[in-house]
Design brief:
globular, Rossmann fold, 548 residues
Length: 548
């Protein structure tokens, strides 16, 4: 593994660059997935995703292509995200669903806040969502020793009887995974006794260090649950009655609409305003836009295959399912950059337009939108120019937010990604070309985040929700990297994010006052070490110790 920074790059860096160039071509980015297994492999295996690294942008790109990121480990860590928590978020977002957490009752402690949240997010989309309905099998010491499959059977039947849900998502947590409970056999046994499809989710926290593996777990469970994605033949459509004198006209109208229809795949981190902004841009090109799968009903999923193209708004979230639809139904898909900021939005819309032969129309639209945005950002740019920002969260959001920060004249002091793989190389190559060789960590550890911020001394942070409190305790004001309450996507989102940065920098008293009255739980000796002191490569050496 290469540990030198750009200033001391070894001679074999050229070879690594050639590997990177080959790996980032779309033709090379093919997933080798077996959709017939009980559960999917973790992303450390399928995508060589790394969860621990310290260095700079060029090091991360090179080592991602070489597969070295997956070899890094920590000799010390605090808590980290659990893939079960991520899996339940998607389950809650499916209209009229029920989630069953098979495990001790404490595994559901983080889910109470989702009740109001899911209803609100649904209403923002014009949909009446039920409460976040979930059961726990509440395994006791006795069941942990003797098995809890009977409790799971009872919970499934009770959930189906009480709610008649659209789907029942069954989460396999750590304890039953360790003792060997067979949820697949239980679900197979009960399929004929329930009205709801039963979706197995093998998501114990210890199973994957890359918590985004949970997205693959959910989509794998959905495709195994028996939902119908088969295209509906014309003859089965009532409007397409062969005896109808307008039969041929209606079929042609349908075929034309389908040829201009795209499916966009959302996430809980993508708000209704984000969806509206992207819909506005794509419908201006004459395209028909639909959103799946979150905040939709499983009955609607049958129409997924009635489209010309699938598009991931965040491929970290949806690539697994899009690959399944491609292999099973020959549906093409593209993976454009998440549309935050002018550069990423132009790339997102242009790539979709190219598929439909609409590049010229897209260029005219985007030129006009960018001119309006540039004028709106001018006064903001004058006030925030030169201010230092650190950005942390999922790598697609982090990278595009960094390009937006540069667009308004800010200096990106550092980036901190929860994980990283080669699917980010095209974006991060643009970051290196535009922003320079920025210090970049791969970390989900609060201790490393605090150390990094102490050394970089940013004026402001853009943080994954829930982590801004660490910034504010350090005296650094923070705004959210994403939120359902605001717009982030497209040109409207670029302006709103820039405006929030401007307003936050104008008054930093809250974070300053908080830092004067809060003592963080870390020793001064920790701040004297590199933030990546505990991240080692397979030879036992610290990775990227001179990055900051």
């Amino acid at each position: 593994m290469t540990k030198e920074t750009r200033a001391g790059a070894p001679a074999d860096r050229v070879g690594a660059r050639e590997v990177k160039d080959r790996a980032t071509s779309r033709e090379q980015r093919i997933l080798d997935i077996n959709f017939d297994t009980k559960f999917p492999e973790k992303r450390e295996i399928t995508r060589k995703t790394g969860h621990a690294y310290g260095g700079r942008v060029d090091d991360i790109i090179d080592n991602a292509c070489a597969g070295c990121l997956a070899n890094c480990e920590r000799t010390f860590s605090q808590t980290s995200f659990c893939q079960m928590g991520v899996a339940t978020l998607i389950g809650f977002s499916i209209k009229d669903s029920v989630v069953i957490m098979h495990g001790p009752v404490g595994c559901g402690s983080q889910s109470h806040f989702m009740d109001f949240t899911i209803r609100l997010y649904g209403l923002q989309r014009g949909k009446q969502m039920a409460n976040a309905r979930w059961f726990s099998t509440n395994l006791s010491e006795s069941e942990v020793i003797n098995g809890g499959e009977q409790k799971l059977r009872d919970a499934i039947l009770e959930a189906d009887r009480r709610f008649r849900p659209s789907a029942i998502f069954v989460c396999m947590t750590c304890a039953p995974s360790i003792i060997g409970d067979d949820i697949d056999s239980v679900l197979e046994e009960l399929r004929s006794e329930t009205t709801a499809p039963l979706v197995p989710l093998h998501c114990p926290g210890f199973k994957a260090r890359v918590f985004s593996s949970a997205y693959d777990v959910v989509y794998h469970g959905i495709q195994r649950a028996g939902f119908d994605f088969e295209p509906i033949p014309y003859i089965d459509y009532e409007p397409f009655n062969p005896d109808d004198p307008d039969y041929e006209l209606k079929v042609r109208q349908y075929q034309y609409t389908r040829s201009r229809t795209i499916n966009l795949y959302n996430a809980v981190s993508i708000g209704a305003q984000d969806e509206a902004e992207i819909r506005r841009l794509l419908e201006a090109l004459g395209l028909n836009v639909r959103f799946f799968v979150e905040f939709s009903h499983p009955d609607d999923w049958r129409f997924i295959t009635e489209a010309a193209l699938n598009v991931a708004m965040c491929h970290v979230h949806d690539l697994y399912f899009l690959e399944y639809l491609k292999q099973r139904f020959d549906m093409p898909y593209i993976l454009p950059t998440i549309p935050v900021g002018s550069s990423a939005t132009r790339g997102f819309v242009t790539e979709i337009a190219r598929f439909f032969g609409l590049e010229d129309a897209a260029k005219k639209l985007l030129d006009k939108e960018e001119a309006k945005l540039k004028g709106a950002l001018k006064p903001i740019r004058e006030r925030v120019k030169g201010k230092k920002v650190i950005i942390g969260g999922g790598y697609m959001r982090v990278g595009t937010a960094g390009l937006l920060a540069d667009e308004i004249g800010m200096a990106v002091a550092g980036m901190r990604n929860f994980n990283y793989d080669t699917y980010g190389n095209q974006l991060f190559q643009e970051i290196e070309d535009t922003l320079g060789n920025v210090p970049t960590a791969i970390s989900n550890q609060s201790s490393e985040l605090v150390n990094m911020v102490k050394k970089l001394k940013p004026d402001i942070a853009i943080s994954h929700p829930g982590l801004g409190i660490w910034m504010n305790k350090l005296g650094v004001p923070s705004i959210a990297l994403f939120s359902q309450r605001f717009t982030f996507f497209g040109y409207k989102g670029a302006y709103e994010l820039a405006r929030r940065i401007d307003r936050t920098l104008a008054n930093r008293n809250y974070s300053k006052n908080l830092s004067r009255n809060i003592e963080l739980p870390y020793l001064e000796s920790w701040y004297e070490k590199p933030y990546n002191h505990y991240i080692l490569d397979k030879s036992g050496e610290v990775v990227g110790a001179e990055a900051i």
